[in-house]
């Protein structure tokens, strides 16, 4: 199933998502549907709040960038109830976009490396240390679970410069090729 993607301005994007338990119905189907929704929109990550579900689940697939960075080969993961345990290394700046903020991209500074504890869709427990672009993608999706979007991390001046675009999105003025929900 392809879900519509929630657009900036929807209150679910500003709420901290709640953990789920092992009894959560059809988790594997949800994860599969989230990957399908993300691929349909040409994304590399998607968090459950972005499809209107205020739960701590996100998916990331950056394997398509393995030609540029071989360490990304096979990096396709679901993160259930993730918790970033540590941030390490220098912060690097890179342009980011978001499926919930179509048409907007800004430079965001993030730590180079994270250590994260999570469960996969089969409830296998993991603690991974992730670096580079994969760490950036995971941090971006993790922010959604914490009720933040990437423009919350840019300077006030940059935010003021894009305020009319943000206001338009919040009013439902969206122009993108995937299905959305304001």
Explain what you see:
The chain has helices at 27-40, 132-145, 156-161, 163-170, and strands at 5-6, 45-47, 57-61, 76-97, 105-119, 125-131, 180-181. The chain has a single domain, classed as Peptide deformylase (Peptide Deformylase). Strand 5 and strand 6 form a beta hairpin. The mean pLDDT is 96. The protein is α+β, with helices and mostly antiparallel strands.
Question: Keywords, please?
Answer:
182 residues; alpha+beta; Peptide Deformylase; five-stranded antiparallel beta sheet; two-stranded parallel ribbon; 4 helices; 7 strands; globular
Structure summary:
The protein is of the alpha+beta class. It is 23% helix and 31% strand. Strand 4 and strand 5 form a beta hairpin.
Q: Helices, strands, pairings?
A:
Elements: E1 5-6, H1 27-40, E2 45-47, E3 57-61, E4 76-97, E5 105-119, E6 125-131, H2 132-145, H3 156-161, H4 163-170, E7 180-181
Parallel strand pairs: 1-7
Antiparallel strand pairs: 2-3, 3-4, 4-5, 5-6
CATH superfamily: Peptide deformylase
The coarse overall form would be: globular
Strand content: 25-35%
Mean pLDDT, nearest integer? 96
Sheet with most strands: strand arrangement = 2-3-4-5-6
Low-confidence segments: none
Radius of gyration: 16 Å
Q: What is the multimeric organization of the chains shown?
A: single chain
Question: How many runs of DSSP E, i.e. beta strands?
Answer: 7
Largest sheet: 5 strands, antiparallel
Instruction: Classify the helix fraction into a percent range.
Output: 10-25%
The H-and-E topology, N to C, reads as EHEEEEEHHHE
Query: CATH fold name, please?
Result: Peptide Deformylase
């Amino acid at each position: 199933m392809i879900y519509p993607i929630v657009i900036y301005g929807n209150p679910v994007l500003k709420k901290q998502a709640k953990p789920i338990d092992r009894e959560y119905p059809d988790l594997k189907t949800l994860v599969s549907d989230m990957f399908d929704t993300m691929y349909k929109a040409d994304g590399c990550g998607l968090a459950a709040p972005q499809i209107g579900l205020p739960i701590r689940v996100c998916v990331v697939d950056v394997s398509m960038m393995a030609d540029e960075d071989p360490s990304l080969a096979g990096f396709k993961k679901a993160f259930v109830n993730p918790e970033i345990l540590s941030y390490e290394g220098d912060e690097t700046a890179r342009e980011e976009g978001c499926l919930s903020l179509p048409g907007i991209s800004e430079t965001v500074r993030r730590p180079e490396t994270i250590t994260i504890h999570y469960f996969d869709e089969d409830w296998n427990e993991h603690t991974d240390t992730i670096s580079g672009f994969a760490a950036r993608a995971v941090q971006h999706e993790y922010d959604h679970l914490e009720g933040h979007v990437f423009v919350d991390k840019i300077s006030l001046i940059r935010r003021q410069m894009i305020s009319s675009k943000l206001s338009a999105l919040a009013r439902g003025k969206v122009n993108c090729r995937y299905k959305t929900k304001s």
